[in-house]
Design brief:
With 451 residues, the protein is α/β, with parallel strands linked by helices. 36% of the residues lie in helices and 16% in strands. The protein folds into two domains: 142 residues, Aspartate Aminotransferase, domain 1, CATH 3.90.1150; 268 residues, Aspartate Aminotransferase, domain 2, CATH 3.40.640. Bound molecules: pyridoxal-5'-phosphate.
């Protein structure tokens, strides 16, 4: 434990394999060695600090360094550090009740450890539900999952099979059979009739073969794609009409990120299964969950030996420490009225960016919902050709040099990775928000100077 920082960095270079990282040049551009976080800032071992404009990987919604959450974790670990969810305990019960209460409609909570696993569980649940439902609509032949181009649902083989992003899939194929894609709305590029396209896809596949449709209410990593207002209500109606379960992936958008507790509440619809992760515990603990509507749960009812129960388990789902921390995290979101704050500061960030980037010949669109804001960069406004990958990377690098971490899309198709993204902690102050906006504009102008 007494290694110096330089020794630790050398050990990192020798022993660690970092995600999404090419290691060949890692000694020239090593990963930031982060030692601590406080509020919206993270600090490295050399005393440098960055404004965390992406809340880590879109998760540290209540900000870094909350002693209160550390205290809850310590107390819970000392009292009960582990019990599987084949048993039960107070923090899991209270968190489940809280989730159902926040959703506002009846459901059953199933805990997992990550967003990917929540989606895996949702797919298995959907297939088993369809095989067991007794209303004459289902059957074991309903196994297909329809997902969307540009959506992201995770890194495990099922969740990746439902992911419509080229770079994530490339080289790992063939992925699982039974996953089918349809388009997601992209109003900037004139793609708007996507509920009709979903219906065509269901009819083309045969409704009697389709178990579920999965979508992010607002596509996050795929480019901050905000659907037209009539999209989700139409999707809900189509899924109901054809007996297809609607799975909403609120892994990023859940718990206030878009200005409502859950993004689907913007459009007044109810899902059949909703998956959560990230903001549920603001990244203080790895925890995820899904909530299934009561009628989905009821299809699993049967005699003890019937095998109709959900035959799925994970060691750490519903972990006492993780659920205790998540519960307190949600209490903080409510107590400090952070969703209200998201709306206020989100509007400021969006309008300031729109104002400062107005008329820029390479800025196709500045769009956002709550504190999820994207800037789409193009080589020219007429063709809307996506800006070059290196230039977009240059913006991220420049902002980093200026002390602000921003995000960007991965290539959703070859050559299309042209959206930079900010999603800061909800506790961001007005001054910090101004720093975020000014730095992002400076980053963009460093790569795309105005003539
Ligand atoms: C929308 C969405 N769903 C699922 C996931 C997967 O979550 P995890 O990385 O916790 O497995 C992510 C991760 O970024 C995500 O953005």
């Amino acid at each position: 434990m007494s290694n110096s920082i330089s020794e630790l960095k050398a050990l990192d270079a020798e022993c660690l394999w970092h995600p999404l990282t090419q290691h060949r040049n890692i000694e020239v551009t090593p990963p930031r060695f982060i030692e601590r976080g406080e509020g919206c800032f993270i600090y490295d071992a050399d005393g440098n600090r960055w404004l965390d404009g992406t809340s880590g990987l879109w998760c540290v919604n209540v900000g870094h360094g909350r002693e209160e959450l550390a205290d809850v974790a310590r107390e819970q670990m000392a009292k009960l550090s582990y019990a599987p969810m084949t048993m039960t305990h107070e923090p899991a019960i209270r968190l489940a009740a809280k989730l159902v209460d926040l959703l506002g409609y009846p459901g059953r909570v199933y805990f997992t450890n990550s967003g990917s696993e929540a989606n895996e569980a949702a797919f298995k649940m959907a297939r088993q539900f369809q095989a067991q439902r007794e209303d004459g609509i289902g059957g074991p032949g309903r196994y297909k999952i329809i997902a969307r181009h540009r959506g992201y649902h995770g890194n495990t083989m099922g969740a990746l099979s439902a992911t419509g992003q080229w770079e994530r899939r490339e080289g790992y194929e063939p992925l699982l059979p039974g996953f089918v894609f349809t388009d997601a709305p992209d109003p900037y590029r004139g793609i708007n009739d996507c509920a009709d396209r979903l219906e065509e896809t269901i009819l083309h596949e045969g409704p009697e073969t389709v178990a579920a449709f999965i979508m992010e209410p607002v596509i996050a990593g795929g480019g901050v794609l905000i659907p037209p207002d009539d999209y989700l209500p139409k999707v809900r109606e189509i899924c109901t009409r054809y007996g297809v379960l609607l799975i909403l992936d609120e892994v990023v958008s859940g718990f206030g990120r878009t200005g409502k507790m859950f993004a689907h509440q913007h459009w007044g619809v109810e899902a059949d299964i909703i998956t959560f992760a990230k903001g549920i515990a603001s990244g203080y603990m790895p925890i995820a969950a899904l909530v299934a509507r009561r009628d989905v749960f009821e299809a699993f009812d049967g005699e003890a030996e019937s095998g109709r129960h959900f035959r799925h388990v994970n060691t750490y789902g519903g972990h006492p420490v993780a659920t205790a921390v998540a519960l307190r995290n949600l209490e903080i979101v409510e107590r400090e009225q952070l969703v209200e704050r998201v709306n206020v500061v989100g509007k400021t960030v969006l309008t300031k960016l729109q104002r400062q980037l107005a008329g820029h010949p390479n800025v196709g669109e500045v769009r956002g919902k709550g504190l999820l804001v994207g800037v789409e960069l193009v080589s020219d406004l007429q063709s809307k050709k996506p800006a070059a990958n290196e230039k977009v990377g240059g913006i991220v690098r420049k902002c980093g040099e200026l002390g602000v971490i921003i995000g960007r899309t991965t290539p959703v198709t070859p050559g299309q990775a042209n959206i930079v993204i900010v999603a800061p902690p909800y506790v961001i102050s007005d001054d910090e928000a101004a720093l975020l906006v000014d730095t992002l504009v400076a980053g963009i102008e460093s790569q795309f100077p105005r003539a």
